[in-house]
Amino acid sequence: MCNVQFPQSIVTTRKFRFVGQLLSPPFYIGYRFALCPILCCRTLALPWGNEDTQTLIDILAKYNVKATFFVVGDWVDKYPESVKALHDAGHEVMSHSNHHDHYNSLTADQIVADVTASNEKIAAVTGVTPTLIRCPYGEYDDHVISAIRSMGMEPIQWDVDSLDWKDYDASTIYDRVTSKVSCGSIVLFHNAALHTPEALPSILEKLIKDGYTVVPISQLILDCEYTIDHTGRQCPAIAKDTQ
User: Fold this and answer.
1) Average pLDDT, the chain
2) For residue 82, how many other CB atoms are within 10 A of its CB?
3) Which residues sit opposite 188 in a β-bridge?
């Protein structure tokens, strides 16, 4: 049995999940979707800063929304107070690697060591060890997924990229996200992207008005048997007749 309950108002909606990788976990269903902001420090030429973190926390609080923030270990080192603020506000703080390396180029042992280092930094601040990771660059293959799952963690991919990192204006980000979100979507945003704080309120207002509920990613993942359809979406497996 799947350990999920649906509001009565959406019990009859089509139920499906999105999978963005070969060995990916299920993402869920109904009129629910998740926000997936990324917090990291990349290079000196392109750093993800900290100036918008509290603004994003305040915007999400205004709409009573909890999100999942994937943070790089280097960002945790630089901004531990912001990591704690995210956790204290009720958001999930999960791993986005330790140094934002290309995991496809690392061995399984190197991946495990990198994720472990990131997890330890996050846990030292929040008291909670991450159970999810969003791989750097959205890069993965079977050996990456297997290494991560050997740690008892699940890799997460997205199906809606806001492209806020390209510094599109707020209207373009709004149109892109609201036109692409569907049941069970995971929407990718970035901290310190130029127009995300401007775009996010109108996006949330539109999708909430349309009947969507925003939940942390851990609430999208099911612990039951599933199948994958031709679009890459996962569906709860139909119980076999035991007679």
Assistant:
1) 80
2) 21
3) 36, 161
